[in-house]
Amino acid sequence: MHTTAAALGDAARWRIIELLATRPRSVGELAELTGLRQPQATKHLQTLAREGLVTVSPLGQRRIAALEAAPLRAFDHRLRALLATAEANEGERDTISRYRAALAAESAAAQQDSWADGRTFSFDREFSSTPDTVWRYWTEPDLLAAWWAPSSMTVTECLLEPTPGGRAILEYRDAEGRYRSEGAVRVATRPERLVFELTVLDAAGAAFFTGHYDLILREDGAGTSLRLDLRITETTVAAVPYIAGIATGWGQVLDNLAAALAEPAPECQNATNPTQNKGAKS
């Protein structure tokens, strides 16, 4: 299929295919209609013939070229499948477009450090799972790793220890590098509330900004109402790409969480620790 695309990618060969789509033509006629010299037309026809796109047969003293439709049908099938895939994933391109717009706006605003301190974001979701199940997906490392990064990223380390003073860690990577955040859990009241902070770090360990998160899970009928509030502080000018991506990034990972919760919940990893049930409200 790649060689078919290469054969059709030449403008002269494409024009020959267009001419042959209406009827078979002699090599001389094709040369005249395309503005090519006859040896050039012959060479292009030889390339198309190797891909099975045309056949060239002698007819008296002339050589007649005819189009073979089957390879074009196969090529059309692949293109339609590619288009269907692109249309099914149109949201991914929309995400990039929104990010580019946010990046431009934030870049214009970031004139000095602390430029975005105090900025807040809120996210609300409804899940059919119980609050206790949703809590597990936030606090059990294996379950957390299954959703806590955009689809283009791979989680390499993640941890939200559900006890006051517990560690909060998120590290993920893509083809461009690794990205790490570290912090601490402040409040852990299972399965209702988890308060934690994460500082996004550069490669040398310096802070880009700190996010302060307040997760509230409420029973809603047979399911769960989730509210996540985020406030950012200690923002540097270099934090622009991260700040610009907060809204779309958290939208993606909460979609991931919804998809993970739609699967059968695995067994609990450990027995419940009493310190995880009633956390200090500080």
Automatic annotation (TrEMBL):
Keyword check for Metal-binding: no
InterPro entries from the UniProt entry: ArsR-like_HTH, ASHA1/2-like_C, HTH_ArsR_DNA-bd_dom, HTH_MetalResp_TranReg, START-like_dom_sf, WH-like_DNA-bd_sf, WH_DNA-bd_sf
Pfam families named in the record: AHSA1, HTH_20
Highest taxon listed in the record's lineage: Bacteria
Residue ranges of domain HTH arsR-type in the record: 1-94
SMART domains: HTH_ARSR
Keyword Nuclease attached: no
Alphabetically ordered keywords of this record: DNA-binding, Transcription, Transcription regulation
PANTHER family linked to this entry: TRANSCRIPTIONAL REGULATOR, ARSR FAMILY, TRANSCRIPTIONAL REPRESSOR SDPR
Family stated for the protein in its record: Belongs to the AHA1 family.
Name of protein: Metalloregulator ArsR/SmtB family transcription factor
